[in-house]
Amino acid sequence: PSRQPLQTKMAAPISADDVKRLMARKDEIEEEIKTWQDVLESQKGVGMSGPLVDAEDFPRSDIDVYQVRTARHNIICLQNDHKAVMREIEEGLHTLHAQAREKGQGEKIDVQPEKTDKPRPFARVDSVATGGPASTAGLQVGDQVLQFGSVTPGNFTGLQNIGQVVQHSEGKTVPVKVLRGEETMNLGLRPQRWSGRGLLGCNIVPIS
Predict the structure, then answer these.
(1) Any residues with CB less than 8 A from the CB of 120 and at least 6 apart, and which?
(2) What angle do CA 89, 90, 93 make, to 5 degrees?
(3) Least confident of 63-77, 115-129, 186-200
(4) Which of 74, 148, 154, 191 has the fewest CB atoms within 10 Å distance of its CB?
(5) Considering only CA atoms, which of 196, 201, 181 is closest in space to residue 138?
(6) Cα–Cα distance, 41 to 151 (Å, whole number)
């Protein structure tokens, strides 16, 4: 059978709202990268290239090697996502201006993302058990949760969201962003079995 000719890819119509959504996604990715960079900084400032073994080739005991590897992997993936979304934004702006020229529109196209308020916390730490994973990670009673792994104010619908992250992250480090007073803090929480109940050693309640 004869091969079908390749179709020329036509630029699909794009709206200013589409570009705004891409810009919002870019901001989200940058915030996630910063969260993981803060995790690396908390590990003796090991960064993306600091050694994970000591002089005798044993894993370093002064840092959480697993947490560092997880953070580095996630940063690399997010940086690739960032490049891709920047490319989409550039192409989108180019297409928008081309569409405007075709329509003979002289006015400037406004694709500045809307100013967004600071993220609002969706849950609060109600209690923290001494010696549990939450206590080890540095969580404190009264901390207001801004991010728990992939859960954010934008997609939080109930505590089951946090429960799902915990179930799928046993033994893995989860980035947790909390508001403590006026200060935003980035922590790394590793859900795991311990001498007490559950995998976290804390109680989290939703903020209505």
Answers:
(1) 146, 153
(2) 80
(3) 115-129
(4) 154
(5) 201
(6) 23
Query: Which residues lie across from 187 on neighbouring strands?
Result: 176
- Given a cut of 50, is residue 7 above it in pLDDT? no
The answer to whether the beta carbons of residues 154 and 47 sit under 8 Å apart is no
Three-state SS sequence of the chain: CCCCCCCCCCCCCCCHHHHHHHHHHHHHHHHHHHHHHHHHHHCCCCCCCCCCECCCCCECCCCCHHHHHHHHHHHHHHHHHHHHHHHHHHHHHHHHHHHHHHCCCCCCCCCCCCCCCCCCCCEEEEEECCCCHHHHHCCCCCCEEEEECCECCCCCCCHHHHHHHHHHCCCCCEEEEEEECCEEEEEEECCCCCCCCCCCCEEEEECC
**Would residue 149 be called left, alpha or beta, if left means φ above 0 and alpha means ψ between -120 and 50 degrees?**
left
Confidence check: pLDDT of 8 > 50 = no
Task: Name the pairing type of β-strands 183-189 and 174-180.
Answer: antiparallel
